[in-house]
Specification:
This protein has 11 helices and 3 strands. With 300 residues, it is mainly alpha-helical. Strands 1-3-2 form a 3-stranded antiparallel sheet. Helix 3 runs antiparallel to helix 4, helix 7 crosses helix 9 and helix 10 packs antiparallel against helix 11. The protein is flat, with a radius of gyration of 31 Å. It starts with a helix and ends with a helix.
């Protein structure tokens, strides 16, 4: 059999796969929903594996270069910053270690790939994510995933700006909670699909529901967090003012203000990722409000 005859079935198979794949990709590329339109797989584990492989290859060259350097003889007194005088020579490499131009070119290419991969992965991890299970229609296309895998698989939103600050722990945990609820609902829907498999009408209705079913847990968590912070900020100001207005002694005022400031600082530090300076500034502003109120009452 000639090479052309062997290649023909493969080409036909690739064309058939492209014909089946194109309608799904076209739907994703033209969908009105932002999750389908701008969501792409993050491949975090694959990126990390690629970085580890590059790191392993560079490590072998790095070991060879250091061994070549150690065999050059004693270092001058001003060259001890790296502690190379304590370095151990590898006897398996012999008395001389050659550093050829091929090794230098290979090292240069590997370091460039490693640096580019590190920077790219850092930028990817700063992007907002959502779970594949948030988009029922999109996850229904992945027949190779079970419901739990769709819940754990993360996609990045390329239409949103990168996060400038670390993750807010309260928002992060709330997103995980909402995704868990959505996973439970989808898992139940999949079980219903398996029960309805013999009824074509019911199956068609389920597929129609999947196409319309989206759950943007990021936006929902943002709305809930903002609402809770607003509801929490009010009592932090109103309750101390009410308590202070009912107190007459200076000692009671001092204890109330001190307790409120400490509790406020703890809440800000635990529920947010504010920096040390931001926590200090927020606590000082909160203390100033209480002190002004106490001073006004004392003056009156």
């Amino acid at each position: 059999m000639s090479c052309d005859e062997q290649a023909t079935p493969r080409i036909l198979e690739e064309d058939s796969e492209a014909d089946e794949l194109f309608p799904k990709l076209w739907r994703n590329a033209t969908d009105d929903n932002t999750l389908s339109l701008y969501g792409f797989r993050r491949y975090r584990t694959t990126h990390l594996l690629n970085l580890r492989l590059l790191e392993h290859e560079i490590d072998k060259l790095d070991h060879q270069l250091f061994q070549a350097g150690l065999r050059l003889g004693p270092l001058p007194a001003t060259g001890q910053r790296l502690g190379l005088e304590y370095g151990k020579q590898d006897p398996t490499l012999g008395t001389e270690v050659a550093v050829s131009k091929t090794i230098m070119l290979q090292l240069r290419e590997l370091v460039k790939q490693y640096d580019d991969a590190l920077l790219a992965f850092n930028q990817i991890m700063l992007m907002d994510t959502y779970a594949l299970a948030d988009n029922d229609w999109q996850s229904s296309l992945r027949t190779d995933f079970n419901p739990y895998e769709t819940y754990k698989t993360r996609l990045v939103r390329i239409d949103l700006p990168r996060r400038g600050q670390p993750k807010d722990p309260f928002r992060h945990n709330l997103r995980r909670f909402l995704r868990g609820i959505w996973f439970f609902k989808r898992n139940r829907k999949v079980k219903q699909d398996q029960e309805w498999r013999g009824d074509g009408t019911a199956t068609a209705k389920l597929e129609s529901d999947l196409k319309k079913s989206y759950q943007n847990t990021n936006d929902l968590a943002e709305y809930i967090t903002r609402s809770l912070v607003g509801l929490l900020a009010g009592p932090f100001l109103v309750v101390p003012l009410v308590v202070l207005s009912k107190q007459s002694s200076d000692d009671a005022h001092l204890i109330t203000v001190s307790v409120c400031i400490v509790v406020f600082s703890l809440v800000v530090s635990l529920l947010t990722r504010a920096s040390n300076q931001e926590i200090m500034a927020a606590s000082a502003a909160y203390a100033a409000v209480l002190v002004v109120f106490v001073g006004g009452n004392l003056g009156a």
